[in-house]
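Journal club side-thread
Mid-discussion, someone asked how the predicted structure for our own chain would compare to the paper's figures. Pasting it here so we can look after the session.
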Amino acid sequence: MYIKSLCLQNFRNYSEQKLVFDTATNVFCGGNAQGKTNLLEALYLFSMGKSFRTQQDAELIRFGEEYTRAVLTFCDRNREQTLEIIILRDRKKQIKINGLSITKLSELIGNLHTVLFYPEELGLVKEGPYVRRRFMDVALSQLRPAYYHTLGLYHRTLEQRNRLIKKIRFDAAGAMRETVFVWNEKLVDYGMELVNYRREFMKRLGKLAQKAHEEASGEKLDLQYRTRFLDKASYLEKLESSFEREVEQGCTLYGPHRDDFEIFINDKEAKSFGSQGQQRSAVLSLKLAQADLLYEEYGEYPVLLLDDIMSELDQTRRAYLAGRIPDKQVFITCTELDGLLERGKIFTVTGGHAEGN
């Protein structure tokens, strides 16, 4: 799988831009705040339908403009395809696949596969559970687009149940209490589906990450998915037994929205006992395992997006990552070229304009 071209209108600090890419390595080189990461953000947008930097689509629109339009052409093993996204202020974004409009984001996810490396994700090991859940959700959505659909149903049900719980606090007659058990059934059905997806995913990911980590550092890596529920019955029982406490706190206290996974290096918890170098190696292994898992599933490697990641790695880890790049299409941002980055097509980025060699 590789991206052929990208066209942008009013995207971030880009007014008009068209780029044609190399099938192997593409480097966006330039000073800080010139627009390098904006280009990776545009590519990622076609993979997940969302930015990795903001939840607000309107922030992608160039200052002073009313819309942004992005068109991307890519090739998978079957054919060439074109994706188009138009975002207007205060309106739902429009998405087309090969000229046909789609209404659900889940229809976009799974077409273009990418794996993103960016500096903030180096905290995946040491940050809180939300960061690791987000990693699972993004990786699983590409691997299993149906997961993304179920995730949306779960969160909508969770929001409705939370609203009801907050109202129950002020329902003196208690008439609303019985209705919460209807939401329990729906929440548990969607929740257990997510848990089952995550179990399978973490098992497969763990094997691949263990292999990558041993190759990179010679150390043992283990992943352990943590969930409180193994079956529907125990999940329902927990919701019912904790109901009064949930009413007191005004939210749902248990479910896959609280799940996490732990990372162990040489049988020690990486979050508490791993050095910064070990933690970064673990993140690198997770990302490479994500790419390998997509290859196992679809028979072609995803596109790798590396946002200034080389400057964050030491020489050993940088060399290992470089050794895994040659058979994949890669997009790299950097402020300075060095020996590692002088291969492939180089785009000089200045003030919202990219010029290729």
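Post-session note: Residues 180-217 form the longest helix (38 residues).
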